[in-house]
Design brief:
It contains six helices and five strands, in the order E-H-E-H-E-H-E-H-E-H-H. The chain is an alpha/beta fold. It has a single domain, classed as Ribose 5-phosphate Isomerase B, Chain: A, CATH 3.40.1400. It has a five-stranded parallel β-sheet with strand order 2-1-3-5-4, with helices on both faces. Helix 2 packs across helix 3 and helix 4 packs parallel to helix 5. The two termini are 26 Å apart.
Length: 145
């Protein structure tokens, strides 16, 4: 399961992502925004997606203008490892080595084609359970407690 959410600046890109996910047969749930509202706050959608990701042991994609706001907000939820995606190789490494479970995107700085490539990389890359990667994630878990 994949949860997606975006504020007004990511609203249009989120709609394209939803269509892309549906066209490829991915099971996903849109957590909003459901209508364009210039006054909405990215925090609301990022937290909601992050909570669902942890609750369902799923993956999520969060979008705002810079990507930074949703990244920061999602990472406040215990159990979330959100990464801001810029390049496919960077997202690949973040999944493979850091086991990110939420991908943050900057709607103002990437086009639709790049966004889909980043999401595809995020969804298709598996975490490699080596001792060092597991050790690092465990250190994060201990700190969260």
């Amino acid at each position: 399961m994949i949860f997606i959410g975006a504020d007004h600046r990511g609203f249009e890109l989120k709609a394209k992502i939803a269509k892309w996910l549906a066209g490829r047969g991915y099971e996903f749930e849109d957590m909003g925004a459901f209508a364009y509202d210039h006054e909405d706050d990215y925090v609301d959608y990022a937290i909601l997606v992050a909570q669902k990701v942890v609750e369902r042991n799923a993956k999520g994609v969060v979008i705002c203008g810079s990507g930074v706001g949703v990244d920061i907000a999602a990472n406040k939820v215990v159990g979330v490892r959100c990464g801001l995606g810029w390049e496919a190789d960077q997202v690949h490494a973040a999944r493979k080595e850091d086991n990110i479970n939420v991908l943050a995107l900057a709607a103002d700085n990437i086009n639709e084609e790049k966004a889909m490539k980043l999401i595809e990389t995020f969804l298709e890359t598996e975490f490699v359970e080596t001792d060092r990667y597991l050790r690092r994630i465990e250190k994060i878990r201990r700190f969260e407690k």
